[in-house]
Design a protein that fits this description.
Length: 149
């Protein structure tokens, strides 16, 4: 899952010229029906990250940034470094259909529970759908992989 140009810029400034980038102690896992884009655009969805509305119980899930919640991939690729979720990421039970039962095929990490900046994103395999009330989406350990490549 690639980092966005926003995070790349923050890390580059931190490393070479400042100001220092302070990593969030909590990131917020979100779901999207559309493939996000790396560069921030303009408009209502600047990264093309289409989330369900909160009216049916959807909300980003807070995950602390630590070595339990994000662990190295056991078999690192030769050309990069990867971390994966080390814990189950569980969304609250739905109270109705999310995005009219559209497939939610992408996950992303944000620096805020609402709004904020998309830090990284990538596909979910398998995609998930919420056709009505009482559905619970769970991202299993290792299902979300964050990569520098």
């Amino acid at each position: 899952m690639p980092h966005t140009s926003y995070l790349d810029q923050m890390l580059q400034q931190h490393w070479l010229s400042g100001p220092a980038y302070v990593r969030p102690v909590t990131v917020y896992f979100a779901l999207s029906s559309a493939q996000p884009q790396q560069a921030q655009g303009s408009g209502a969805n600047p990264w093309n990250f289409i989330e369900p509305e909160t009216v049916y119980g959807y909300g980003r899930v807070a995950v602390a940034t630590n070595t339990t919640n994000f662990v190295p991939v056991s078999d690192e690729p030769a050309n990069g470094y990867q971390l994966q979720n080390g814990i189950l990421i569980a969304f609250p039970a739905s109270t109705g259909p999310w995005l009219e039962n559209a497939p939610l095929g992408y996950g992303g990490l944000w620096d805020a529970p609402n709004g904020g900046n998309l830090l990284s994103f990538g596909p979910l395999n398998p995609t998930v759908q919420v056709p009505g009330p009482a559905y619970t989406i769970q991202i299993q350990p290792g299902q979300y992989v964050d990569s520098l490549v």
